[in-house]
UniProtKB/TrEMBL annotation:
Any Pfam family hit: Glyco_tran_WecG
Alphabetically ordered keywords of this record: Glycosyltransferase, Transferase
CDD domains hit by this protein: Glyco_transf_WecG_TagA
Protein name: N-acetylglucosaminyldiphosphoundecaprenol N-acetyl-beta-D-mannosaminyltransferase
Gene for this chain: tagA
PANTHER family given in the database record: PTHR34136, UDP-N-ACETYL-D-MANNOSAMINURONIC ACID TRANSFERASE
Gene Ontology molecular function terms on file: N-acetylglucosaminyldiphosphoundecaprenol N-acetyl-beta-D-mannosaminyltransferase activity
Organism lineage string: Bacteria, Thermotogati, Deinococcota, Deinococci, Thermales
EC number in record: 2.4.1.187
Length: 239
């Protein structure tokens, strides 16, 4: 599986179908495998956080979550990604492909959201729910213990900026086959939030629509601008 590097972080050159196939192999392999859906904000944060860099480098799969990463790969490596592979597309594709055979643990979001996401997911795809926990906890130990005892095939973690480091830090103790940081996808699965019109999804502008419609997300713009600046600076530096 070809892997390139942008601004010190890896990106796997995979399509959605290839990502699903790769995760299918992970589900059959021992140990816990981490999947990161890389977005521009992660890249910007990682410039000042070695732990984020290490988490990405040690992940078994890093997909391009959004057009920004696709653009950066083209600018900095001359490689062409088959397509972007967002968490919003990858999670439903996994649930659709593996369905009733999947034992899933839902972790994150506000109280009640993960439970509703689990119920909706079970009703739609027939998965087995082996655990639910909201993201509002202070002590990690009981949460990690609950996950380890459940031994899920798939651990879905929706804890925003905390999620990927939580998985990486506790990887050896989670007991899950595959752990994915899925951002706000628990809200979507629960029905609390709807995905934007398919046209904006195809154009890769779902993130922009969500930011424009939610003032709480407006703070993301400076990081997106910084990402563009970093890519352009790196391109100039390497000719």
């Amino acid at each position: 599986m070809p892997r390139v590097e942008i601004l010190g972080l890896p990106v796997d050159l995979v399509s959605l179908e290839q990502a699903v196939e790769r995760i299918g192999e992970m589900l059959e392999s021992p140990g816990t495998h981490q999947v990161i859906t890389l977005n521009p904000e992660y890249v910007v944060r990682a410039q000042g956080d070695p732990q984020l860099v290490q988490a990405a480098r040690e992940s078994e799969l890093v997909t391009a979550d959004g057009v920004g990463i696709v653009w950066a790969v083209r600018q900095l490596t001359k490689q062409q990604l088959p397509e972007r592979v967002t968490g919003a597309d990858l999670v439903p594709a996994l649930l659709e492909r593996f369905g009733p055979r999947l034992r899933v643990f839902f972790l994150g979001a506000r109280p009640g959201v993960a439970q509703k996401a689990a119920e909706n997911t079970m009703a739609r795809w027939g998965i087995q729910v082996v655990g639910v926990q909201d993201g509002y906890f202070k002590d990690e130990a009981p949460v990690i213990e609950a996950i380890a005892q459940a031994r899920p095939d798939l651990l879905l973690v929706g804890m925003g900026e905390r999620q990927d480091l939580f998985i990486h830090r506790n990887k050896a103790r989670l007991g899950a086959r595959v752990a994915i940081g899925i951002g706000g996808m628990l809200d979507v699965l629960s029905g609390e939030v709807r995905r934007v019109h398919p046209l904006f999804q195809r154009l890769g502008l779902e993130w922009l629509v969500r930011i424009a419609g939610d003032r709480k997300r407006w703070g993301r713009f400076p990081r997106l601008i910084q990402f563009v600046r970093l890519v352009r600076a790196a391109k100039r530096a390497h000719g």
